[in-house]
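Chain A, query sequence.
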Amino acid sequence: MSSEEYQALLSAETAEAAKDPFEGYTFVKQLGVGLTGSVYKCWKPNLSKAGVQDKEKPYVAVAVKIMDKAQILDINETEHVTRESSIMKAVCRHPFIITMSESFQTPSALCIVMEYAAVKDLFFMIHELGALSLFQTRAYFVQVVLALDHVHHKGFVYRDLKPENLLVRDDGYLRLTDFGFAKALKPGERAYTVCGTPDYLSPEALRHHGCNRAADFWAVGILLFEMMAGYPPFYGQTHSDLYRRITEGKHRTFPNTMSPHAQDLIRQLLRQEEGERIGMGAGGIQAIRSHPFFKGFSWSAVLEQRVDMTLPSKIEPDADLGPEDITEPCEVPCLTELYNLTDEEQKLFEGF
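Chain A, predicted structure.
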């Protein structure tokens, strides 16, 4: 290769590296805030594999998680965030798990582009509706268990189940999202970092005994109670009081509206001994599927999305305004501010 050809190749590579990965994107609004960054609704160009923009549908709505590298370094969360994209790539091919289309980084941020769920999350639905109907509860519960079973079979424990991490699409079906606390575990291994939402923490995690997929089944039991009652089963004036009640198994009294079968399933999920929880036996989630709570209810129909999940009229989808209707795009500070990260600091993000 001649020196002229080498310089031309080098210039092309430099130009490609300098290209703005968000060229053509319109940031609409902030959807949520976390420790290391935020999630935004965006409109992005709808391009074919050849890079040609679709004429009939030129833009598509996406959710973009943008994590500030400086913040990540400040709280020493590099390992967590760099593995999140790889875990999402491994598990996202499932009907009830959020789809990730791509991940990349800029000099100041880590970015994950995902499908956009156009309604709300399950927390919003419970807040608006109170206790969900029996049909809604069973349908959502099935979707969550199937999603977690897929995550477990891929070799991961999720560790952050809560209504806020269950997004509701406009077709009424759920998508499990946010894999920031997920971790790969080999058979017999345990995860010892205590993480997740206080109301959903398992007793073994609070006792610092470490946890495995049984902690996810515990959280499923908490979720089932909350969907049927409108509030979580454990309550305390302080975190210490809450944690004491969890480790002692002193949950709230079951509402009178909760059937004996529902109560039994919750009790089996909230066993203090993790090995005794339903779903942890040799048959896996088959024990949950065959529980009397689901008599006459088809798990297969839910998995194949043949069940009508039409949302209640008071739960309205997000206004689907196109990019041409956005007069003041949302600003993303960590994409515009310049950070002087060292080469050594940038290398910490190479696995993303």
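The radius of gyration is 22 Å. Confidence is low (pLDDT under 50) at residues 1-17.
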